[in-house]
## 1
Amino acid sequence: MKRFAPKSGAGIWRTFLKVLRSYSMEEKVVSMILTVVVVVVGFQGLMELFRTPGLFADEGGIYTEGLVSDRATLINPVYADFSEANREISSLVFSGLSKYDPTLKNFVEDLGKLSISEDKKSYKFVIRDDVFWHDGQPLTAADVYFTYHDVIQSEEFQNPVLKANFQGVEVKQIDEKTIEFVLTSPNAFFITNLNVGILPKHLIEAVPVGELPMTNFNVQPVGTGPYKVESPLEMQGDTRQSVLLTLNDKYYGEKPKIQHIRFHVFSTSDLLLREQGTVNVIAKVPKDIVSALVDTNRFQFFNYELPQYTAVFVNMDAPVLKKEKVRIALQKAIDKDAMLRMIPNKTRVDTPMMELNQTEWLNKTNIDEAKGALFDSGYKMKTDAPEDPYRKDADGNNLTFVLLVRQLDETPSTAEEMQTLVNFLVEAWKNVGVEIDVQFETKSVFDERIRARDYDLVLAGESLGYNLDTYSFWHSSQANEN
């Protein structure tokens, strides 16, 4: 991931990089599939820095960040997957058993001391003695047990992504300071699931788990993180949501330098554009207002890349796609460099194993070799019909594949980008004689068709998270109905 910093105050800025926990879990496409065409890195964010002299002073100061979210904001770490704003704010207000260290590029202990059993199936934490809730109460193992067992593992819990991470995990409270997680089998990446912010049992244990998203706790929560909520999350007249955080003087870890952080959460990009003068930084600039912000000449832009990608996946149960040369032809027909010229702010990737060298990929673009591979597979052009662009099988049928794509009505700018990508793929494969039947579906139908393997090709995205873990996407044991 590319790091970035303002022209001054780099140390302070690095502190805030820790809150960029923006690796939300996209819909996972888990089936008996093989990637043939990895098309673009999933998202390259844009960060803007308002050029204000002395903004990041060595001590004190106010940092104001603008975000766009079309969902009501909850300041609650167990619902952080629901919105960008929740992730940003909750990561400052709450602490977890583990945290990501951007310097070490790994997960490390946070709220407690970790010990792992020899068989790698038991993770035991001893809670620190110097951790206190913002209301002055000490944090204990009972709070951790409450968060993971009573809330996350509850049948009424409404975050399926987080809930799935702890399915089959036994949570035990050993004593007032010790908590243990027992796994059914070793999982080297289990510690990466333990960065969830811990909830205060003494404040919300009486709230039914199904009603947690509606409780007032989400407006002015109490955590153990480096910042506490000074004034509650409130709705402004222009539909903007605002919240003010202030430094937690009793924080157990290294204290940040900035005294106050204010977040403005805008319901639309246009509203953020109109109110840009109220913020110092805009995180993940929406594509539809980038050019307008560039024209103001008030912001300095920084790019950062996330470990996620968009790819075309192949249904290996489809008879024609069992042929290796057909899959190679589909790969070699795509000129990714030409494609990226049509879709800006993306980075080319050639393999889903993103820690590998992307330049050493075998199947480089070669139209002649793509045509030859299809010819060798038995699909030929009609010599007596030069106007027909598609190859035929031995029975005279077009070489045709169904490309399944999710309909993105909720995000028009992304939908437009996806349409551009689809058009490019259709034309590229037509150039080598392959006909593509594009079928856009709503999320529910899209998910159902994936479960039913009702497609030849599917265009979808995957987010690998901090650890670049591809196990759930590519290990054969994960190729189930979900």
## 2
Amino acid sequence: RTWGWEEAGGSRSGNAQAIARYTRTTQFFYARMLPALHRAGVGVLAGSDAPIPALIPGFALHDELRLFERSGIPPLEVLRIATAGAADALGLGARRGRVVAGFDADLLLLDADPAGGVAALARSAGVMVAGRWYAHTDLTIALTGLAERYRRGGP
């Protein structure tokens, strides 16, 4: 009925019962619901970088994609869900979400083959975003700074 997340006062960590309920709910979703939905052909999307406590942009999507894979969805299908599937759902599939001549593209260049598992996404050489190249070291510096801001209590 709900995700079960409740914050305790001003705390970002929530109370123990709410955390336990949230954990049970998400485990049920990824172990039972997501595989059943996928087998039934129901379209699913990835997108956990919402402003929700405990979900940190830049990290949460990788966690979610690993959970999709652990749910039994093959790695290349997980990547399709997160790219072409997302573009299609937003009505942008005619211009984005695929590596096709003439499409607008942000690209992630990997040092590993993602067909072997979505963990390969963490092994990037860099990212091309809006025509600008960000090397892996640039991304690491930015993500480390983001993690530190969250550690101190804010985005």
## 3
Amino acid sequence: MADTRALVEAPLPHPRGAFSHIAAAAQPLPAFDDPAFGRLFDHFGDARVVLLGASTYGTAEFHQARAAITRWLVQHRGFDIVALEADGSDAAVLEAQVRDRRAAGVGGLARANSWIWRNREFDAFLGWLGEHNRRASRSDETRLHGLDLYDLSASLCVAVDYLQRVEPEVARVARERFGGRDPWSQEPGAYGRMAVSGRYASCEGAVTSMLADRLQQKLREAPAI
């Protein structure tokens, strides 16, 4: 008990002490278009994955900073994938634009969180990435992908359309396995409530099985490293 009283009654450090530590560690930032800005983050260049998280949302300056860091890592550290917190099928539209040498733009991002990407700063970054890929060989291009799944029905359609082009028999199996979602295609929230309640058979097993089968197929096809 004596130790507890001593801990509670001990005076808290003055906040100015914390401020002085922050001030001592802080570095002045050059302009975003100055190569020195991106170079400040070069110590992340040996990592396989660099995460630029939610604190980079909001202002034009944060978007410009994120783009500058990304440009440096792509140009000088060989990063070849930019992954967005965006719908996968929406981001695929931008991927085609920045790699197929068509005019880039943010119009394809129409679903949830589109406000994060529908801005001039990201549009300028897409233009830069398209130019970067235009100068690179096909094998050295930087890809752009979405990490999220906001529109389940649209994503399932994209998956089935792809399979129909490359493996029609697998596409037939996929349609059957995904069929449990059809009655709820426009109301995924309602499907979720029914699945959790136990009053409706969940499609989870069939969909998971489909994804596991495709993953195993991809692993078998992947070249040995």
## 4
Amino acid sequence: DSLENIDFQLRKQLIEVKREKDLKKEDSLKKELQNFKDTVSKNFPIIANYTQNVFNIDDFQSQLDNRQLVLKYLFFYDQLAVISITKNNIKIELKPWTQSEKNLVNEHLVYLKNPNSNYTLNSELTNLLIPDMVNNYNAIIIIPDAPIYNLPFETLTYNSDFLIKEKTIHYSSHLRFIHGLNLEKKRKDTETTIFAPSYPKEKVDYVTRNYPVFLEGAQKEAERLAVLFPTKSFIGDDATKSNFIENKSEGNILHLAMHATIDETDPSLSHFNFANNEKLFLEEVYALKIPTDLAVLSACNTGIGKQDNALSMATLQRAFNYAGAKTTVASLWEVPDETTSQIMIAFYQYLKKGKTKSKALQQAKLDYLNQVENPRFKQPYYWAGFVLYGADAPVAQSFLDNKTIFLLVFGGITLIFGIWLFFRKK
């Protein structure tokens, strides 16, 4: 805890000098932060190891099952490498990456992010990104590179419909996060910690989780989720930054239903908007320890960002992965408040039934598509904005509460005793 606090305070100071544009102090703090990291790596190797561990591809493949296909993408100047990884094989396919292919991707992204677009299926993009061997696998895991980091593969064309109709899909920023990082023992029971700040009520024609106005859908979402699992809720003025830091690791599901603001120039200044106008910055998240099974970042643009010096995407989602969250759910654009609430509630209902995380999110989206009547609201903008990163296992070993377990056991014992009496009497 003391190491976490030192790291957090250093990064908090770094945020302040960045906002003041004090380059001299910024360089000094970066050196101090690096010295701290080196000290931790030397004196506390177990703590330092979980995000810097040596990766072994053979161990990774041994943990895949026969229905899983991992697709890793690498983009070069004029070529694209599609690396297909299965339990028993690795295949690399090179494809052209010219202006024509770039336009194909960019046009698709423009369609997705426009709520008024007349969206059409795009088989040409599918042919570029999806190998033929996908037909043999049910679960697809995507490791995207920068040009397609904002692309939800669920919206690609497959058998003349959306790929999500036939395949479960989830993502990861690195191969090492797919099977999860074992920071501590898994809890037996599922417990949820929810943060849903209230914001000023303003007249806005269309509410997304980007601009800080009242989120009716987020409040409804928090209330409904609290019924599904044992929950510690911080609603309205209680959803403060300090309460988050103190309670972030209480449950094995962490849910943030709120606004987020992305800084496109310096991603480290991207932040969540907590109550009382308090901000939790991306830079600060890297200092925290959040060993939760699932972190749901139910806000705008939590899965998008900018390449950092290591050629990785600096996003709020990635920061939560590095903080220890085994799985994150994050957004790829300014998501609408109302439909986000519908999909999130259904997602948790399927988690409650014991579905894997990717299957739960897939089914929640399909339910939305099947239930909505207005063709306009079937556009991917309304349902495809949230994607799942990291480990895919169910959130807990048991999804039954103690009362239900007691009733099942008591009923079973009563039944066995009744059968025994019946045969004894005979």
